[in-house]
Amino acid sequence: MCELKNFKNLVLFVCGEGRVLSSKHEIRLCFQPTTIIIHSIITMAAKELSAQEGKQTFSNDVFQVDSPCLENFLEGISFWSKHTPTSPALLFPRTPASKSMETVQWNEFRDSVQLAKEWLCKTLSLPSNASKIDVSGLNEDEARDKRTITLLIAPTHDNICILMALASMGYTTQFICLAHVYEVIATLIHKAQSQKIITGGLDQDRLEKSQSHLKEISNSSSHKWFQTEEKSTLSGFLDRVRVFGSTNVPKLYPVSLESANLSATDSAKFWCALPNEKRWRRQLETSLCFHFSFQQPVWRALMCGTALIFPVIRANQDQSTHSHERKGGKVLIPNATDILDSLAMADGDALYASPTGLERMTLTGLQTENESWKRALSSLKDAHTGGAPASRQMADTFAKANLEVMQVFATTEAGMLFLAKPSLTKHLCNLTPRPQLAHKMLFYQRDPKDDTLELWLPEDFPGLQKYGLKFEAYPGDESIQAWNTCDTFARLTPYAPLYEFRGRTDDWLRLTVGTACRALEIEDRLMELMREPISQSSSKEQSPVLSPSGSSSSQFSTTDLQNSFTSDSSDAQRVEAVTVLGHARKALSAVVQLKDCTYPQEEEKQMAKRAAEIITEEKLQYPLILRPEAIIFATPETPAISITQKGSVQRKKNEQAFGSILDKMDL
């Protein structure tokens, strides 16, 4: 039985316009004197996984569930209620800050945060400054609890602004994302409004629907639950939200319903595959939700009902949280003590942070007299960091704390996908380090005959941004003004397979490849090469050699390849369109369409393969970034490449159309 009474004022309120994705779901409710609880059977993927589970019933005076996902939800709430017994927990509805959702830019955050402040003060009657809250007669912990607000919100732009607004008002905030973005059910709306918990953020249509549901419930007085078969969707919610990329400016990629669905399916399977005791601890993050590098775990949680636990932000009053300037204002960053507090509070055993953040946290934990921080550091089983180079001093610090650090390259998955089972998830990056590197990914082996493990150092990254200086141009392409994982792959030797890439149909191009891989660039170059005349010698066999990725390729240079496309063949202009595909198990591939979708000649097949090798060698310096053996030709038996009237490739539709063909290819 899950004790929920520890929360003195628990309100789980649903934000946004999202609705349950499954066409049929059940909701069971029960009220405690000071508690309102809502939950439902969540994603279709989780529903499929739970189909074989037996029905489990909690005490009738708390909650009745028939899904392991609901059980996990209650476990999480119970867990947090034990650690924050006096903190109000609010799941906010959408706020006026959402008006800047359409065009999220950093210079708009200041206005959005100000709107959020006004909304918090007016709607929830919060003091404009936490220092105004009377804490006389309370000890330090009790006073801190009284000025703490636990947020249970979906990580949308406007809710991010709420988080920042609360921090700037001096409140200590704990941000927990318990998400799907559920349909706001009628009873909860009615109860929340009658208690004046919320007065805004709901549209009239929803209120009218709520009233009709209330009548339905009142007519079924013998039951404390109701069923609905209303099919509901995300109502365009995701199409308006923009996801931040991993560079210094927002990339403003829209998240489509289809891509979110794929993410949800993968994540639900990954989450349910973990042992129960891990499900509410594994995703302990040390970045805020507006940090650039981990939008994917946020969206996985948003779509799956999983939990992201962020560190306590103690705002401005005790100067514990530092900040740095970006365009548009300051960004709050949790420091070492914030991280240690959060680890201790959540009993966390896995952590994601930058190398610098990990080092500061580790040093603080080693030097502190705080027993809670010491226990938090000693209980940390492993830590994950991005692909940025670390110093030997950092490595020594981690070694002193017996902290095993895994370095994750070319991914925005916040390191957690390292723990996933590939057979279940097929996520966009499947890390497969060698056994001796499994927990030492800050190191790599330069010589297979030597057991010495060497560090990635700044000099190993020629495009690395030097502190205090401008971005350096990437070697071979001065238009790339930032260091990225291309540097890493250029340094890898054929005998050092630290990892291999995987991709998902929806995200591979924009998330896995990094800032240097631009799909349009690849498509333009592929079209250019495919329209070069075919030489008579282009189909001659070449002697294979080992490529940097360990696979065989033809032994010739970029110049030789380009010179091979030099005849007067008129067939070259038969190429009508090309498109690049990101795919779950086939890495990066492409589709070539000839005029009238005619069948390709052998010379054209060879030309496509050679073009892929040219792009790999001259453009991106990735090992087989564009798979030559995975080039598809559109024929009368296949779909045609989808192109808009303006001539733009519709990549998502093409990935859906040709993905099944790639699945059948023996690669």
Automatic annotation (TrEMBL):
<feature type="compositionally biased region" description="Polar residues">
    <location>
        <begin position="558"/>
        <end position="568"/>
    </location>
</feature>
<feature type="region of interest" description="Disordered">
    <location>
        <begin position="533"/>
        <end position="568"/>
    </location>
</feature>
<protein>
    <recommendedName>
        <fullName>AMP-dependent synthetase/ligase domain-containing protein</fullName>
    </recommendedName>
</protein>
<feature type="compositionally biased region" description="Low complexity">
    <location>
        <begin position="543"/>
        <end position="557"/>
    </location>
</feature>
<dbReference type="Pfam" id="PF23562">
    <property type="entry name" value="AMP-binding_C_3"/>
</dbReference>
<dbReference type="InterPro" id="IPR042099">
    <property type="entry name" value="ANL_N_sf"/>
</dbReference>
